[in-house]
Amino acid sequence: MQGWVTLALLLSLGVGCSLGQNGVGELPVPRGLTLNPDLPAQTLSLTWQSDSSLFDLEIFHTELMNVVLNETVAVKTDPVTGLHSWTWHSPLPLECTSHSAHIRARNQQSVSQWSPLQTIPGWDIPEKSESNMFPQDKVVPVGSNMTFCCIVKEKEDFKEIMYGRQEMSATRLSRRTYAITATNQPVSGNTGTNVICCSQRLTLTGAVVFVGYPPGDEGLVCETRDLASAECSWKKGRDTGLRMRRSRTKYTLNGRDCLEANERKRWWCSSKAWEQSWTLVARNPLGTVHLMDSAQLTDRVHLLAPVNVTAVEVKAWSATLQWSWSVAAYKKLEMVCQLQLFAHELNSTRNYSGPGLSSVVLESLWPDVDYTVTLYCGSKHGFWKWGDKSAPYRIHTKMDRPDALDVWMWMDSSNTGCVFWKPLSVRKSHGALVGYEVSQSSAEEDGWTPVSLPPGNFSYPIILNNGSDITVAVAARNPAGLSQPSTVTTPAYRADSQLSMSELLSTNGSFVLSWQPNANASSGYAVEWVPTGCSGLCPVDWKKVPESDSSFTLNSDSLVAGVRYTVSVYALSTGAPTLLQRWQGYSQEMTPSQSVRELLPNQSGSDVLLSWKATAMENQRGFIRGYTIYLANAAHLELIANISDPEVQSYRVKGLSLSSYKFVVKAYTSAGEDAGATVAIKMEMDTADMLFVGILVPLGIMFCCLILISICCYKKREWVKKAFYPEIPGPKVPGDWSSPQGPLDVKPSPHSLVHIVESPEWDFTKEGLFPVPEEEEESENDNIEVDADSDEPALLRYYNQVVGDGSHGNQVSDSSGSSNTSVDSTQTEITYAGIQSPTSSQGACGGGGYRPQMQSVIGPAEPQIEFEADFQDDGLHAGYKPQCSWQLDSPEAENFSGSLGSPTSVTSSQFLIPESSEEKPQPSNTWFHNFLSGKS
Amino acid sequence: MAGRGTNGRHGSRGHAGRTAALARLLHKECIQLLELYRNSESLPSSPVDGGYLVSIPPLVPQLSDAEKISILHAALKECLRLLEDVITREDAEFSDEDSEYKRKWKTVRDRLGHLLASTEQLLVEGQKFEAKVKEELDGQAVSGSFRLKMWIVRVLQDLVHWTGQTSDTLRSLPAEVEKAPKTMSRRTRRGAEKIRK
């Protein structure tokens, strides 16, 4: 306590010093400051006494001494109370925390001392330990800002403040008070917007704020229904969004509570008596709306609906309607009534007027029609609006006899025809038809012959027995009776071919017809149109034209596109109709639906004659203007002719070569071409030409070639001989055969082996030579077969048969085979018969069969020894080795030595035949050789 | 909650079984109603400060089943009174427009009346227990719409609690209780209970 006193003393001294520095002391301190809070309004009124008129004010949140207001205000003394008074509007509810204020006087730069602090306690003082939130149940306009505070109860923590579903950022104002500010608040739901303060475990407290709009009602209008009382109505306007009972809009009409509207049933108020002016006040916590209206009673009559509407007399063409009024005062009111008649395609509205109108006669009704009547009325003088509609009332008018039929007769031949009539519309039948009666009379027969037809018939066939005219009368019948008969006399039949018809061109799908007026057309004209060429049940249509007219437009809706019509105009009189004019035309031309028929090609030499026939008329769908002929190539059609005369139905395509052709013929109308008919033709030659070209010409050419070749060969025979049969020098064996030599690699000249055999220099002593195919080449070029028939002889090597290797033994045999083939092919007529058994082979060497080499060559031992030595010296591939060596590959090898050098080592038997033999074979090519050599 | 599941034996226990099933159904509907209200008002699921409004003597084991039912019957009766009061106040304060929440209110009120009538047949004649309501709406310090809403939550919390208690008690009720005449003395019933044990 002593400490507080010391602190206060020091503070006062300090303040005194500071004030002294500012000239303090001269202005008196304001006295008697009192604080008066208005909690719902969140205002704090300050009153004090002072002689000054300018004051500094400071307001604090007491607990934390946060300054919430520091302002200099000029406040005059209230002359009545002699007090100064100033009001501060707090953004925060004053209950949230304690507020303190003090004041001092100011005179320019001079100020007085501050007055003592005055405090109003908040609800966060220790004495109020419970949780609370402020403000409660505020009603505020949409878009406003608002601050809420939560006072947490003692010993409870604070977690958050939720505004609706939104967690808000809270500010601490005191030990227990936290505040949030909601800005631009949206309209609330049905039960307001909840602001909830929570601790970690509990919902502590909260408040509800109602955010809405002021009333938006408008358009007050008062009227009378009974010519005495008033009913005022208006439009509700925008929803206020305030559903709480105490926040709802309250209405008063001319100061009286409007119970109907306040119960939210209807937006209208009633008053038992009519008043000249009306004021509606709509009020809710956010605002008030005043709506005004003023009018005379007679100008605001809104009649009630007529009641007890009945039809007292219903006829075929009229009915009388009666009704009554529920308000007696209406009986003297000059009123106008509107009556609406609803029927199928017969709707109409009729007006009636009169004082207290309660009955009208409905004229111009149609027989046998179901009408629905609705009636409503209004005040005639000072008409305000139509009254309520009566309940719909149904009237069914009675039937009447049908109207006369529209009848026409169409002749499809000179003695047959058909009477047609058009079905009657609802307006003309006057009741459901039960049938037709057709009567006919002719000059020969007296009286009429009646025929009854069911209601679905609209034609009747006519046959003229002896060519005399027939008059037909047709009448329709319904339950009310028979219509007036309509008569028609058979017109004279005129076939199309008998007339010179003109082509009728359409205009926008319609035919515009005109004809010369005819003096005989006393009953007008009839325009008839029928599809051209139609027979049997044809869709004949017609239209009767008054005699004053000589033109008619046949509309497209009664014509079918692509159909040719024959249009005729008849003059009508008391007798038979007279044909005046006839046309044919299409309302709209289309491309033909089918191509030309019977398209045939006919070849004539290099020309082709194409012929066809036009498609049937029903498929033409337009006037055929011509034909186009195309040559069809792979990808496109090449136009080769355009025939603009539709009568021409053939075309000759000239100058075609031998090939296949496709021709396409298309007919065309003004709308275009059809799809086209295609025909193909293959151009063929004549028989004589074929013989000449196919046989004689190649033969001639071949013969000429042979002659030329022969001449050429003869003239160049030296060159040919040199090129193909050069002279081959005979083999010369100089020197000693005992010395080993390199392999004699003889490449045969490109002539036959026969030459070698025939060579006169051939020495039998060289019996060891024999042709051996060049194995390496063969093996390297397996795919290159040695062709014995080839002009190029096989490459052969001549070896002395000294090779002792087993493989060489095989080679011998193989080479024999090759040699055989070679020899055979060169036609040297070398034969092996009787020399080598067909079974002889390399395998036979070991056998005991015929072995000519072994038997016939038993030479002296010396050469054998020499060869053996050579063999041993030179090895296996020591070069050329004449037949002095032999392979020893069998147990009898030693015996073979005797055969070395023997002619039997040559596979060809020819070597075995002595040169001097008289039976020397004559080469088969001798004549050719001689020819080349110039021998005869 | 799992302990309050459907039990087939209730069906064979006649009136007590039907009453138990009714209590169980009502308990579920009260939970749904509380949830519905919290959702419509965007209220947090944390409990409202203040505890249960209705208080009864403790249901100690020494009490017989019939006595327990009598005590719970008294609690439910207070709940019904609070519920009707809340409905009236809410209609007076806020919009009386129809909603699912309003329809559920009326269903719960009607079913609670049926449960009270049904449990009344299980009571012992001559015995009267009373339940107390700790707080009344009019006695609270701060008035306002939020207080009414919190009060509604508290009433619903009480409804959930006491219907759950009743359902559990009726579910554990022996079959003999139903068979015993209403005039059976307390002592006799206890004796029978002991024999069973």
TrEMBL record, chain A:
InterPro entries: FN3_dom, FN3_sf, Hematopoietin_rcpt_Gp130_CS, Ig-like_fold, LIF-R-like_Ig-like, LIFR_D2, Type1_Cytokine_Rcpt_Type2. Residues 809-825 have a biased composition (Low complexity). Residues 833-843, 896-911, 922-936 have a biased composition (Polar residues). It is found in: Membrane. One of its GO terms (cellular component) is plasma membrane. Pfam families: fn3, LIF-R_Ig-like, LIFR_D2, LIFR_D4. GO terms for molecular function: cytokine receptor activity. The keyword Glycoprotein applies. It is a single-pass type I membrane protein. Coiled coil: none annotated. Keywords: Disulfide bond, Glycoprotein, Membrane, Receptor, Repeat, Signal, Transmembrane, Transmembrane helix. The chain crosses the membrane at residues 690-714. Residues 806-825, 833-856, 888-936 are annotated as: Disordered. The keyword Signal applies. SMART domains: FN3. Residues 305-400, 401-497, 592-690 form the Fibronectin type-III domain. SUPFAM superfamilies: Fibronectin type III. Residues 1-20 form the signal peptide. Belongs to the type I cytokine receptor family. Type 2 subfamily. This is LIF receptor subunit alpha a.
UniProtKB/TrEMBL annotation, chain B:
Residues 177-197 are annotated as: Disordered. It holds the Pfam family CNTF. One of its GO terms (biological process) is negative regulation of neuron apoptotic process. GO terms for molecular function: ciliary neurotrophic factor receptor binding. It comes from the Eukaryota. InterPro entries: 4_helix_cytokine-like_core, Ciliary_neurotrophic_fac_CNTF. PANTHER family: CILIARY NEUROTROPHIC FACTOR. This is Ciliary neurotrophic factor. It comes from Cyprinus carpio carpio.
